[in-house]
Write the structure tokens for this entry.
Amino acid sequence: MAKQGVGITITQHILNQQRQKPEATGGFTTLLYELIVAAKVISREVNKAGLADILGSTGKINIQDEQVQKLDVFSDQIIIERMQHIGQLCCMGSEEDADLIDIPSKYPKGNYIIVFDPLDGSSNIDVNVSIGTIFGIYKKKSSETDIDLLMNDVLQPGLSQVAAGYFIYGSSTMMVYTTGEGTGVHGFTLYPSVGEFLLSHENIRIPERGKIYSVNEGNHDYWDEKTLALMDYFKTTDKESGRPYTSRYIGSLVADFHRNLLKGGIFMYPADNKDPKKPSGKLRLMVEANPLALVIKEAGGYASDGHGPILDIEPKELHQRVPLYIGSKEDVELAERFISGKI
Ligand code: AHM
Ligand code: MG
């Protein structure tokens, strides 16, 4: 019989997943639901970016010393606004905010923590290239409620995330998420006329090995010998091992990651000596690497800092940067062998 409805909505899917966990209270569902509302609003704004007078930079510099674009600010605010009132969070951490974000006293607090990059790849906003929102959700460990005492609860290894994922604002808007623990990775596409995310990519699995390598080769002169040897490996012809790989790099993490997740391959942002203030490269552990690392693990892939699993790193600070090798398991394990000097 032909399907009469619209298929499985994201809310239905989250509820189904929650029912499999006896300890679930429904609070987590509320949390993801509000995040989805925020993402729909961001998606709407991104889609009209060329039309509305919202483009261009605000002239402010964020705490990472980068120019903040108006849509970054907007996305940050909309997520905070939508999430703060639901009574499920004790605090939030955003790429755009130096400190933890407290829950206003007029709202109840809960036991979850959300960390997010509200609009990643912001330098691509002006040129109609896909950008995204990345998020990771944790449960707090202590009974603290004071914002000044919550940092320890926030700085948990990525493996502790109870959910993680991203929204990609591309030719269509998608949400890809996992709740960890072998539940898999699922992708939903926003159906504009219905206003809902519908299941379009069930149980995404990344190929064990890919054909694509994604890296900013403009950083060549800032890389060390091991990194250079790894890049040479991907480019060298060797029919038996399927080389050379194909190079694909957009410069928008969510877009580069999403393509490699579906097609297989490796995304890399190695450590470099370009800026003495950022010896670990550009990407952030908490808001970028960890959420994508949980997604890739659940899809059968792997994420490493070149020496070991990203998900095992004990974070020291909210805005910590980390070298990132992420994608097909065999490709990332090979990269790890090069970077840690085993090849
Ligand atoms: P952003 O969070 O300020 O947008 O920066 C992160 C972005 C990622 O999306 C992307 O992978 C990376 O910066 C690209 O950096 P580069 O231009 O150095 O290659
Ligand atoms: Mg970012």
